[in-house]
Amino acid sequence: MKKIFLIAICLVSFSAVFGQEKIENTITDAHVNIPSSKVSLIPPAGYTKSTLISGFQNLATGSSIVFIDLPAPYSKIAPAFNRENLISKGIEFLSKEEYIINGLPAILINAQQSISGSMYSKKLLILGNETESIMIQGVCNNLNKAEIETIKTTLLAIVYDAEKEINPFDNIGYTLDVSAANLQFANSMMSGFSMTYTTDGKEPTASEDKTTLIVTKSVSKLPVEDKKGFALKNFKNYPLGLEEIESINEIMIDGIPGYEIFAKCLNNEELSRVYHVILFGDQINYLFMGQTFEKKKIKKLKSAISTFSRI
């Protein structure tokens, strides 16, 4: 749950509450399904499916609509978006609207954030049930006033099919043999942009060794000059209770350069071993976070990650 909140809180801000509005949407020929998701939207003119994010992009304006699925109840997700957490991310709240969309509770967050010296508008829809939740974030430059309202129209026209069967591996774009570490698939977030594997196929795992591997794709718009420094900074951002970095080494997997980090962490007064890898692709970085309470499993995690291969 902590991982879910960390991802979600980075995106939104809200405060005031207005009356609920009921919306009933039906699927149309204009709706486009977001790959490996239960969500269909009507993308605005100029937006196309993205190969770098889970959603749509307008390459001419730099705007985007990004989908994130959250394997947690809406009643648990919504309260996590409190003013203090969101302000700490530099996001300015403007307003919040409440809806019932096809019988499901939803909130639409209107916010803005300064990014690289420019102010960007954020429209974010959170919707769900007591099994799972989804977030869809639309971002565009504040100068594009008409586009801001078009994004809102797109978000509120959502059709969410809770019964749709999803293959989480359809959209990941790579293969990975986790059998070397005796792991099973546990869950997927962001339409395959984040995949979790555990010993027992549950998250959080109930296994004694608590072995977990999280694989994440991250869009990289600019080349990273100091890759070692970036790898260390990225690793230290994880809330792992870092005790000691044992080593950091250059690595090459599937022809992609990167760094591997071996470390010791203290979790609830228990010592765990961590193996972290970041690979620097041309447009996408691949991050692997393996953690276990059984020392010998680190080698197995390394073996599993070494099988990574792009499709």
Report how far apart the termini are. 30 Å
Q: Which CATH architecture of the largest domain would you pick?
A: 3-Layer(aba) Sandwich
- Describe the strand arrangement of the main beta sheet, using strand numbers: 1-7-8-9-10-6-5-4
Class from helix and strand fractions: alpha+beta
CATH class of the largest domain: Alpha Beta
Q: What's the number of extended β-strand segments?
A: 20
The stretches of 5 or more residues where confidence is low (pLDDT under 50) are: 4-18
CATH superfamily of the largest domain: Mog1/PsbP, alpha/beta/alpha sandwich
Shape: globular
CATH third-level topology of the largest domain: Protein Transport Mog1p, Chain A
Helix coverage percent:
10-25%
Number of separate helices: 6
SSE pattern? HEEEEEEHHEEEEHEEEEEHEEEEHE
**What's the mean pLDDT score?**
88
Whole-number tally of structural domains: 2
**Rg value:** 20 Å
Q: Strand content of the residues, in percent? A: 35-45%
> Largest sheet, described in full?
8 strands, mixed
